[in-house]
């Protein structure tokens, strides 16, 4: 190895050290989660980092049956799916005129949406609770769908509008010459062209909604409507907690988002790569 090679590797060493430390920060909690899924509470307290004495699925079975975890999964699927669909539909309809038409008010409206990204919505929780109560949307999955959609729409409009803005205008002009209306142009030409942006909005919205604990805590009171993050807290007792079942519940709750990410990984990589070229 020459001196130039040694100097090259020494120069890159700090970067590798930072990456190794970051990998440790990410991997250690995941390791503890995975091994704890197969342990009893006594084993978890005895040795947090050790492997379980037997690799049984009892904690998963207990979480799914005794804790009726399937009911909470259905609620999370309904709320997350509804929020993702509503966010995409409204955001696409808003981003299309803001990015493709020469409108004098498009910049102020887009700035209004950006303000929604920057303002912390949780500061308005009391007013939001009052509004939900007046609309009779407390303690309902539909209410959560509306709240999450309203929170995620500004971010989605910002992403979709930036992707739509760089598309060549010849695409829609050719469609108009063929007699296509604005709705047909949006659905059949614009949206298929920006699939990576749609994937980014879908996965970011799904992760934020699926993992959220705050809004179900203040808007949901009935066990039948609780989502997964809120339901898992009910497994923690005042005097005794089955930590193996809690960790198994956390592992189960991660699976849908992980599967969604794997299915959309290619579109997300393309979208993130294209984001660097957007202006």
Helix content: over 70%
Indicate the low-confidence ranges by residue numbers. none
Q: Give the DSSP E fraction (strand runs of 2 or more residues).
A: under 5%
Mean pLDDT: 86
Give a quick account of the main beta sheet: strands, pairing sense, barrel closure: none
Task: Please sum up the structure shown.
75% of the residues lie in helices and 0% in strands. The protein has helices at 3-36, 41-46, 58-65, 69-100, 106-118, 125-134, 141-165, 170-177, 182-193, 195-211, 214-219, 228-233, 243-275.
Task: Outline the structure in words.
Helix content is 75%, strand content 0%. The chain is built from 13 helices and no strands. Helix 10 runs antiparallel to helix 13. It is globular. The model has no long low-confidence stretch (mean pLDDT 86).
Features:
single chain, 279 residues, mainly alpha, 13 helices
Layout of helices and strands:
Layout: H1 3-36, H2 41-46, H3 58-65, H4 69-100, H5 106-118, H6 125-134, H7 141-165, H8 170-177, H9 182-193, H10 195-211, H11 214-219, H12 228-233, H13 243-275
Helix pairs in contact: 3-13, 4-7, 4-10, 5-7, 7-10, 8-9, 10-13
